[in-house]
Amino acid sequence: xxxxxxxxxxxxxxxxxxxxxxxxxxxxxxxxxxxxxxxxxxxxxxxxxxxxxxxxxxxxxxxxxxxxxxxxxxxxxxxxxxxxxxxxxxxxxxxxxxxxxxxxxxxxxxxxxxxxxxxxxxxxxxxxxxxxxxxxxxxxxxxxxxxxxxxxxxxxxxxxxxxxxxxxxxxxxxxxxxxxxxxxxxxxxxxxxxxxxxxxxxxxxxxxxxxxxxxxxxxxxxxxxxxxxxxxxxxxxxxxxxxxxxxxxxxxxxxxxxxxxxxxxxxxxxxxxxxxxxxxxxxxxxxxxxxxxxxxxxxxxxxxxxxxxxxxxxxxxxxxxxxxxxxxxxxxxxxxxxxxxxxxxxxxxxxxxxxxxxxxxxxxxxxxxxxxxxxxxxxxxxxxxxxxxxxxxxxxxxxxxxxxxxxxxxxxxxxxxxxxxxxxxxxxxxxxxxxx
Length: 436
What we know:
Layout: H1 12-35, H2 40-70, H3 81-110, E1 118-120, E2 124-126, H4 136-166, H5 183-206, H6 221-232, H7 254-270, E3 273-277, E4 282-289, E5 292-298, E6 301-307, E7 316-322, E8 326-327, H8 331-338, E9 350-362, E10 365-374, E11 377-390, E12 393-403, E13 423-434
Antiparallel strand pairs: 1-2, 3-6, 3-13, 4-5, 4-13, 5-8, 6-7, 7-9, 9-10, 10-11, 11-12, 12-13
Helix pairs in contact: 1-2, 1-4, 1-5, 2-3, 3-4
């Protein structure tokens, strides 16, 4: 194609990708610097966004490169050979950083000693590259250098574009729609471009990361029925004692019969009664990741309670937790917790605690010893709680510590207790109403 047949401006697709990539690059570099200032949950959320933006830049850059190779571009600018070579070098290096930057970041994530799954936009799984740990340090070094190179290239590119604009060479006009190619409109475009660049760079420092939402118990009927069904299937919990044969009964004096009737009536008022958990409670856990505290909870759980302070021998507590309802204020981390390395929800969707003995510890304090079933493992567990009863309503608050590794929660590389402590604190706060 001859120079006279070349278009006067870039294609609309090239124009859109140019400005979109410019904003994403500036935001990404700024966000990369902010990552070093964050810790704990905010840093985790920022890293997930950083990975999402990085892969987006990679995909868009490949599309932009395809357009550059196969769609005709405007004719070259009439300038010196030195400036033309400099402009060509800047453009070529932009493709290097736009493609190599995300690739080196992808390598870093794939070869990290702690493998954190990547979900683009919190929904699209992105695989790790099948590379060895030897790739990690070189990729990390290259990634940092590419960030600084991006800053230098942006400075040179913007400086060159503004120089041409002030010299009234129609360079900026080729990268905007025809409706904005007038001189007055281009002045506005130049100003908006500079302002937009500063805004994109600053946005990474004003975005809120982290946050925490309390987990509440919905006490759904379905979960309650599920717990009841599990108890019904328990041959030990539901085994009935055989009744004495009629011919084994002995005659007793009438006075003893009356006394026994009174004692039975009193025992009837003191025996363990069923309680129904009311909506609005919480079941939360607390741990840490590399020293930064993390809190979460479960949105769906219920308890089957049979209790009386005067009949602790006949009292029992059974708690059922829907592990898929885990909420740690980060959807990507929640997906990881549901996976096989942690809760293994696909094979064991529920955790259950069943008491075997409840004892009074003085005042309003009690202790329930029992068995916790989690992730296919069963281990003894002890639950300390306070109980305040007011007529037919009660409030129970308590906590326990669970050794996660005993249940295979956090397996493989996550088994390192230096990264995530073995002991995880679990707390609950619930209100219940007695069912007469």
